[in-house]
Amino acid sequence: MKSVFKTFVLILTLFGLQSLAFAQTPIKVEEGFDYRVLPIAQPIDVKGKVEVIEFFWYGCPHCFEFEPDLKAWLKRQNKDVVFKKVPIAFRDELMPHSLLFYDLQPKGIGVHMISPGFVETEATAQNDFEMPALISATTAANEILDGIARGEFDIHFPKRFSGFLKFLRLLPYPIYFWILRKFVKI
Fold this sequence. Notes:
The strands form two sheets. Strands 1-2 form a two-stranded parallel sheet. Helix content is about 45%, strand content about 10%. By secondary structure, it is an alpha/beta fold. The chain is extended.
């Protein structure tokens, strides 16, 4: 078990050092690659304003990661900028996400992605495997309410468990599955 932990710490350190190198690299946004200027201006709803439209999908991790930067950018804009969100669906089975947006937006209801760890319920009590960071239903409910109050889109808890799982998703698949096999009965 110690060797697994040492290997994990080594991998974590290497990825941490790599991210420091990338953090120092300025991001260069290129027309034609990162965005495209439309040859003909499209009609807008509000005349005399600059309309910025974000096309997004609720399940898109990149859209989620972009959200804090977008909010900060919007705060710096003057009143000439009008911002709109437009949900998109690349496949028919994703259409309910877009419809959900149009149904809830006029009602002022936001959407949150909730990813709980193991919550103590009658169903989890019947599991025959270890459930790390098991929490009570009351604690889970409080985490959800606190996340909504903070305006978070991705609400996950407990952090020591869900944060570890989020980190694992960043790893290359061979390392990801190697770590999973060490901790999960597959």
